[in-house]
Amino acid sequence: SAGSIVAPGQVIQVQQGLYTSNTSFTNTSMAASDLTVNITPTSTSSKILLLSSCQMGYPGQNYGVTMTFLRGSTNLASTTRPGFAHIGDSTGGNQRTYQMLTITMNFLDSPSTTSQITYSVGFQLDGGTGYFNRNQNGDAGSRGTSVITAMEIAQ
């Protein structure tokens, strides 16, 4: 509002996206999930703090899932690493069929824009099948809700 003072580090706005469907995926290249959030920064100098909490079932035995944040189609992870988190199952006999994990990620982005930005959580498998908001077995009692939050931080 007119006359308001914005101090560096102040949270200007918070936006959140939820994903409640339970799905499986098989993509072996990085792709956006349906867990997304839109935010329109008020200043080009603002930073966006991204937080996510994803409910994941283990992928098939001897496979892994890499997870990252995407700004549009741009992977925000380091160019030397494809993502911010990785889960895998190297146990014998598919022992993790009924298990789920909560995977959290965070990242401070500097988008330098006042246009609307769509952030999403991206997934990439190295083979097999991945599970989002469910376990491998698909048990009705093993369902989760995943969240992504974007906070605009004044600089």
What's the short version?
The protein is mainly beta and 155 residues long. The protein contains no helices and eleven strands.
Characterise this structure.
- There is one protein chain.
- By secondary structure, this protein is mostly beta strands.
- It has strands at residues 11-19, 23-25, 31-39, 47-57, 64-71, 74-75, 85-88, 100-109, 117-125, 130-132, 146-153.
Shape: elongated
Unreliable segments of 5+ consecutive residues:
none
With helices defined by DSSP (H or I, 4 residues minimum), what is the helix count?
Answer: 0
- Number of β-strand runs: 11
The helical percent reads under 10%
The whole-number mean of residue pLDDT values reads: 90
Instruction: Classify the secondary structure makeup into a structural class.
Output: mainly beta
Oligomer: single chain
Strand content: over 45%
Features:
155 residues, mainly beta, six-stranded antiparallel beta sheet, 0% helix
Strand-helix topology:
Elements: E1 11-19, E2 23-25, E3 31-39, E4 47-57, E5 64-71, E6 74-75, E7 85-88, E8 100-109, E9 117-125, E10 130-132, E11 146-153
Antiparallel strand pairs: 1-11, 2-10, 3-9, 4-8, 4-10, 4-11, 5-6, 5-7, 5-9
